Amino acid sequence: MLRQADQIFTVAQMRAAEDALIEAGTSVDALMQVAGRGAADYVWRVAAHHRVTVLCGPGNNGGDGYVIAEAIRERGGKVAVIAAAEPKTDAARNARALYSGEILAADAEVHGDVLIDCLFGSGLTRPLSEVHLALLQRLVASHRHAIAVDLPSGVESDSGALLNPDLPGFDLTIALGAWKFAHFLMPACATLGDLRLVDIGVAPVAGAAVALRRLHLPAPAADAHKYRRGLLAVVGGAMPGAALLACKAAQGAGAGYVKLLADQMAAPADLVIDDAPLAEAISDERIAALLVGPGLGRDSTARDRLSKALHRRGPVVLDADALLLVDKRTPQAIATPHEGEFKQLEKIFASEGKGSKPVRALALARASGMVIVAKGPDTVIAAPDGRIACAPRASSWLSVAGTGDVLAGAIASRLATGAEPFAAAWQGVWLHGEAARLAGPAFTAGSLAEHIPAALEACL
Predict the structure, then answer these.
(1) How far, in Å, CA of 64 to CA of 151, rounded?
(2) How many domains in the chain?
(3) Hey, which of 32, 344, 346, 404 has its CA 20 to 30 A from 457?
């Protein structure tokens, strides 16, 4: 069941959701109280009785700041507000009138433990002025911790762009009402610190993007066997190491049987190598899904193997070299491009390549007929039918050779279990990220693959 807390809203969707609440009988002032006091709960956990400074701007984000400040003051906290400008909305003026604490001018020299950035909110589309940027930078530097409310000032909500090149970083960002794309997209998401969400009662919106959350997967049925759990065939090629990494990950991600279609080679005892001619090998009707690309190569032999694999039709994951060789729409396929491969696919399928990462991924999905997993530190999944999902910011330790092969194996394994392509992509991306978390720092791709079973266990 879809929860509002899973959804990611554009600025327009967030405004419409708030308007719907107001039409249903609430008020802007009431929503501001719910949002601000919800944010104050998180601030209090960080600050408690330490000194807090709230930077308030002229709009409703500034109004949220006055509500936060009053909630902290009521609890006996040490709080001061810096007013960067006079309130310009009725709700912000009302919130300021209800705040009974200290209000300082923008040039006040303030030092403290926690700064709360309520200068500008998620609707900002232009850079901060030199004065406001300098003020924000100075206050962040003079406080031990910094918390952004909804988004840091100077971040564009729908794209994740930094509107100023030298914005400070934050320890915590408290989203109000719903997640925004910038909470998940680079470069913004690298500056946000931890993420928390305050529910203000907005309803789910049909067609909105979703944020990946921890999976809940069932254990195999009591009468399961290896074929019923799913047979995945991995098409090998010129470089066997990549295919072996993908097979290792796939074995731990839920498929009952993983078979490598390649020439005989040294391989783990629990991995079956099928060296029959490819057309013969993939004719096995028990194969539930194919993975093509890791270590495939780009020569004529690779093209022939890809052509044979796609001629079979049915669920398939295309990764690495296969992404540079595919040249036609491929229903039931999942493509897992990194940025360079993404751009190449956009050229192949005449996709515009304009806009934010989610916009580009959706355009490519519709042009190619494939589910697109636009991987990276800000992975985005898009389906031809319009569904979009964003993954939490990935561990930077994944920036090592071979981790993409592990991701492809995890996704293909979930596809072989019977998950439809968008769900299989979602599940594989989550397992990959969880395996990275469990592996800790400085892992290799092989170590990452070894942590896939533990990641799956965490979902049971």
Answers:
(1) 12
(2) 2
(3) 404
Cα gap 335→408, rounded to integer Å: 9
In the DSSP assignment, the letter for residue 168 is: P
Q: How confident is the model at residue 5 (pLDDT cuts 50, 70, 90)?
A: low
Residue at a domain's end among 186, 210, 234: 210
Q: CB neighbours of 385 closer than 8 A, spacing ≥ 6?
A: none
The four Cα atoms 449, 450, 455, 458 give a dihedral, to 10 degrees, of: 170
Check whether residue 287 and residue 401 sit in a common domain.
yes
| 306 vs 48: which has the higher pLDDT | 306
Tokens of residue 16, six digits: 């419409």
Confidence at residue 353, expressed as pLDDT on a 0 to 100 scale: 87
Cα radius of gyration (the chain): 25
Token pair listed for 20: 């719907």
- Is residue 184 within 8 Å of 160, Cβ to Cβ? yes
Q: What does the alpha-carbon distance between residue 168 and residue 150 come to, in Å, rounded to a whole number?
A: 15
Q: Please give the average per-residue pLDDT across 341-370, as a whole number.
A: 96
Cα separation, 232 vs 301, in Å, equals 22
User: Would 196 be classed as within a structural domain?
Assistant: yes
Structure tokens at 227: 């074929």
The strand pair at 371-374 and 380-382 is best described as: antiparallel
Q: Tell me, what's the pLDDT at 1?
A: 37
Q: Residue 301's domain spans which residues?
A: 226-457
Going by their DSSP bridges, the two strands 333-335 and 316-318 should be labelled as parallel
144 touches 113 (CB < 8 A) = yes
CA dihedral 30, 32, 37, 43 (to 10 degrees): 180
Beta strands in 74-191 (DSSP E): 78-83, 102-104, 112-118, 143-149, 172-176, 179-180
Domain membership of residue 219 (yes or no) is: no
Same domain, 259 and 181: no
Q: Using one digit for the tens of pLDDT, what is the confidence trace for 222-232?
A: 999 999 999 99
